[in-house]
Amino acid sequence: MEFSKDVLERFPGISVVEGDIRQLSIGAESPGLERLKAEIAEDIRSRYTLEGIKDDPTFRAYRDFFWSVGVDPTKTRPASEALVRRLLSGGKLPRINTAVDAYNLASAMSSVPIAAFDADRLEGGLLMRFAHEGESFLGIGMKAPISLRPGQVVLADSARIIAIYPYRDSEDTKVIGDTKNIRLVCCGVPKISKDKILRAYTLCADYLKEYAGGTASKPIAYP
Questions:
Q1: pTM for this structure?
Q2: Using one digit for the tens of pLDDT, what is the confidence trace for 77-114?
Q3: What is the full DSSP assignment across 34-45?
Q4: Could you give the number of structural domains in the chain?
Q5: Are strands 114-118 and 182-187 parallel, antiparallel or unpaired?
Q6: Tell me, what CATH number does 178's domain have?
Q7: How far apart (Å, rounded) are the C-alpha atoms in residues 22 and 4?
Q8: d(Cα 30, Cα 33) in Å, to the nearest integer?
């Protein structure tokens, strides 16, 4: 992972923890994972309320980052907050496949947004930078590409943008049932410690090993 100089200058303290989960065997669902999701949902409902979640220091840090890049976090939620709000509203975490469900669960539990990409569909190393005027991006679930604005922080490989940081991953590199290797990026922002991001990575890697059979590489913190 590399960071552009202008991103580091504008957002001192921004950081990520990155690593690979390899040799996955992803299933449609897992009874054990569904039980764990129910247990963690109850734990989250005991710790947060819909009215108070915006004042939690971790969620507040991500909201502040969203405001600073021109994204309204009351309309477009940080990924981890969106998952927690879904549970607090009486919903359940989405059921996609055992890998996606595992890292969504780790994100909700840790309060840290987690990006995940099919590592075999990435080209070259990753770079965090600002978007250029008019760059195109097709995120998961989008019906058509959108044009990005300067000032939006993105992750890109050598060929294309793979994520709007830290809330929307690309359709091109999403994790599906046939994915064998995942690149995980646990997303930090200013006021969030690297230790917290590292704990989120470790939790996520443990869930993926347990429920999708993966082997985790040693995580690396950047910058």
A1: 0.94
A2: 999 999 999 999 999 999 999 999 999 999 999 999 99
A3: HHHHHHHHHHHH
A4: 1
A5: antiparallel
A6: 3.50.40.10
A7: 28
A8: 5
